[in-house]
User: Which sequence fits this backbone?
């Protein structure tokens, strides 16, 4: 064979016939090349293991997000009640329910509407005190629920609870998001994001060389279209979710390698879903808006599945810079950016020319910022985080699958927001910087926080005035003075005091001279009931003097209020308190003398449904049921004929007290609901308006709306108690009636053994003040008063309370 011929092997013509790569690649060179590449391969293998472990650790859990779901309280549907067909369908839409057959995510709750019949099937992981919500059938007569049936047991129900909607998903970094799945995304949003961010997303394997080349070319040679990025959606997700945003070569190399690995771990749909839940899309006060689900609610007040084409293009457009393209600050810029996205979609054939023209002509359609800033109770969420931290439960915010159930009633919360915003707007003809209000509503039996508004616009101020603004409550404090005196049997509702200018001596020959509102006095005898109804300051201090200032201070502390100094001025509410503290104190009156702690949480469960924490109501006995009943009956006076008479008739059983210091207050309650409203300036300026003209209208607006949604919060009557004697008395004198007096009579409540024995003929009517209806002026600025007597020196405070005011500044009602 010629191949074995030595001469043939040494023929130079054979050597010259070898190709160039055969001459370049020799076994020796291959060996040394492999040896030199070994460290690179080892490094790649090492980082593959490291990055794979990091990816697996980050993705561990069911939802692929770093946030816990926070849910409102369940809505209550009552047979024949006002929460009807229209409201229920709106509620189900907010809760993420879909009509049958399910369009999109099958894990969502579903409903089927057939004329006046509505079948509701809750999601499988929704819980009510550790149990699943039942499927129900509701039939309607017009809009009202005519019948309610449990579909599992076929039992007829008087009422039912609906699965609560997700308020938000929240983590320790104060990122708000509403978690969505890929099937929830409208096709127009997927197309918009792909067109503007990564056109070959569904084709490449993590990095896109073609896309990177195109971006480089356009950035250098075609700047008319603006700067383009070369990172794929997968790379952007890696940067935001797995790495820090530092701009270094090493981080960029890690980003590319992790993107390639990630594409082997998740499907394209899972990557896109995770990206859409993670991206930053704006700022709501101190909270960041993360994910398209939360952004759809924030910008358009819509569920993500309901977005139309121009809205989807807007969200895709602001991905590059939510602040730069903010529709609230740069509307023209945001509109131009949206239209650029629409043009990109047209360019790649994702929309037609008619669709492009129609969408381009549409306005931005972004809801006003104030309409969204308080939409999901941001002040309440701030308070909730503080409660979790206080109970050492804030770690649950790092559990991606945890479900946190709150007490917030969305219908009442919306009513509270509207009442506060309209109430402050009606108070002044033009915006007054620093003027704001707060409202907190509690279930009087459980302490559940049903509504909390810490200010009229969270985007402008994150101060939660309901929990953090300490103010002097003024005459709202007076019921605790009268409670101390009635408990000690120092006074009864019929006890007489002279309504006159007085100077009170105390301490080391110190004196105090309070004034009535407007510095007016009748110089006649008045009953304790009339004094509280008309909010007479001098009589309140007289009552405190009679029972003892120390006893009043201890009584306030028992009710959960900060303990005031034992001086005469304490009777007029000079010790600062928050609206939430005042609301907690007032729960003892309708709750048979037991104070109820405010409750924001009811249940915390992990992703598997295991209960982590079950929080029940906590009550503390403060006074006897008899004392509470007598005081509650007395507090009906201001509503029926006193400084809060504007609220008369809102409910069968309603009591409360106005208060005016530098600010306006009202604390009102039914047998089942306590609500406190505060109005004032953040810099502690004088409001110049009474509580009856500032806070009371907000309370009235809220209560009227709240009882439409929750008539069960009204109650027919306040609780009675053993040890209480009901006696009909003459209203003017407080004594037993007689035909000779010919005066108005009322049923008065007394502690057993303290009712009057004399009749009205034995009183000097000429010395008695008339118990006529109080006419609350629309605007009555308090008049200046003499400075208070000097107090014992206090320790220096380098940071005095922001909302402190002189102790002698008297409240006015």
Assistant:
């Amino acid at each position: 064979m010629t191949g074995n011929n030595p001469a043939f092997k040494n023929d130079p013509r054979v050597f010259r016939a070898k190709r160039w790569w055969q001459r370049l690649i020799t076994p020796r060179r291959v060996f040394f090349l492999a040896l030199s590449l070994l460290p690179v391969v080892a490094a790649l293998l090492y980082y593959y293991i490291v990055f794979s472990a990091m990816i697996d650790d980050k993705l561990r859990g069911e939802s692929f997000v770093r946030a816990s779901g926070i849910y409102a309280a369940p809505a209550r549907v009552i047979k024949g009640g006002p929460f009807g067909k229209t409201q229920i369908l709106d509620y189900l839409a907010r809760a993420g329910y879909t009509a049958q057959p399910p369009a999109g995510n099958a894990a969502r709750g579903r409903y089927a509407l057939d004329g006046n019949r509505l079948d509701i099937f809750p999601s499988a992981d929704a819980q009510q005190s550790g149990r699943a919500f039942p499927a129900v059938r509701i039939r309607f007569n017009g809009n009202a629920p005519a019948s309610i049936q449990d579909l599992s047991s076929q039992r007829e129900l008087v009422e039912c609870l609906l699965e609560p909607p997700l308020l938000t998903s929240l983590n320790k970094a104060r990122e708000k998001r509403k978690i969505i799945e890929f099937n929830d995304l409208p096709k127009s949003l997927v197309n918009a994001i792909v067109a503007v961010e990564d056109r070959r997303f569904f084709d490449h394997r993590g990095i896109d060389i073609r896309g990177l080349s195109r971006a480089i070319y356009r950035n250098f040679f075609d700047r008319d279209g603006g700067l383009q990025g070369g990172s794929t959606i997968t790379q952007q997700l890696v940067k935001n979710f797995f790495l820090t945003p530092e701009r270094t070569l090493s981080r960029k190399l890690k980003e590319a390698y992790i993107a390639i690995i990630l594409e082997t771990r998740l499907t394209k749909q899972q990557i896109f879903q995770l990206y859409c839940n993670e991206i930053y899309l704006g700022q709501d006060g101190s909270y960041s808006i993360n994910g398209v689900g939360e952004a759809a609610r924030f910008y358009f007040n819509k569920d993500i599945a309901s977005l139309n084409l121009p809205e989807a293009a807007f969200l895709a457009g602001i991905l590059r810079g939510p602040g730069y393209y903010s529709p609230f600050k740069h509307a023209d810029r945001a509109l131009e950016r949206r239209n650029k996205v629409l043009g990109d979609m047209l360019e790649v054939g994702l929309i037609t020319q008619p669709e492009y023209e129609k969408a381009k002509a549409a306005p931005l359609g972004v809801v006003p910022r104030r309409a969204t800033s308080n939409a999901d109770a941001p002040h309440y969420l701030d308070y909730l985080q503080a409660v979790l931290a206080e109970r050492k439960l804030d770690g649950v915010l790092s559990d991606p699958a945890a479900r946190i159930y709150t007490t917030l009633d969305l219908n009442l919360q919306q009513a509270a927001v509207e009442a506060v915003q309209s109430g402050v707007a009606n108070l002044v003809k033009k915006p007054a910087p620093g003027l704001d209000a707060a409202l907190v509503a509690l279930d009087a039996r459980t302490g559940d926080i049903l509504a909390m508004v810490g200010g009229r616009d969270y985007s402008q101020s994150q101060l939660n005035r309901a929990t953090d603004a300490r103010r002097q409550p003024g005459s709202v404090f007076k019921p605790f003075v009268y409670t101390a005196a009635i408990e000690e049997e120092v006074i009864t509702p019929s006890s007489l005091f002279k309504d006159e200018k007085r100077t009170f001596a105390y301490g080391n020959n110190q004196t105090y001279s309070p004034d009535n509102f407007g510095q007016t006095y009748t110089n006649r005898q008045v009953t304790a009931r009339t004094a509280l109804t008309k909010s007479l300051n001098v009589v309140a201090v007289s009552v405190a003097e009679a029972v003892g200032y120390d006893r009043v201070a201890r009584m306030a502390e028992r009710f959960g209020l900060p303990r005031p100094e034992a001086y005469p001025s304490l009777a007029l509410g000079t010790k600062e308190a928050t609206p939430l503290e005042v609301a907690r104190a007032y729960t003892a009156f309708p709750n048979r003398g037991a104070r109820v702690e405010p409750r924001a949480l009811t249940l915390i469960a992990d992703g598997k449904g295991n209960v982590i924490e079950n929080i029940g109501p906590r009550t503390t006995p403060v006074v006897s049921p008899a004392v509470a009943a007598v005081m509650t009956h007395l507090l009906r006076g201001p509503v029926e004929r006193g400084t809060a008479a504007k609220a008369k008739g809102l409910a069968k059983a309603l009591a409360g007290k106005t208060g005016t210091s530098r600010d306006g207050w009202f604390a009102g309650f039914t047998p089942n609901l306590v609500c406190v409203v505060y109005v004032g300036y953040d810099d502690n300026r004088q409001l110049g308006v009474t509580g009856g003209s500032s806070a009371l209208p907000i309370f009235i607006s809220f209560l009227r709306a709240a009882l439409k949604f929750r008539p069960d919060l009204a109650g027919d009557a306040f609780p009675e108690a053993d040890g209480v004697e009901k006696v009909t008395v003459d209203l003017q004198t407080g004594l037993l009636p007689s035909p000779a007096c010919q005066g108005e009579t009322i049923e008065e409540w007394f502690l057993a053994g303290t009712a009057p024995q004399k009749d009205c003929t034995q009183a000097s009517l000429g010395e008695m003040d008339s118990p006529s209806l109080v006419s609350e002026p629309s605007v009555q600025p308090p008049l200046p008063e003499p400075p208070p007597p000097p107090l014992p020196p206090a320790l220096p405070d380098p940071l005095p309370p922001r909302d402190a005011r002189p102790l002698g500044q008297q409240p006015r009602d």
Q: What stands out?
A: Confidence is low (pLDDT under 50) at residues 61-65, 772-813.
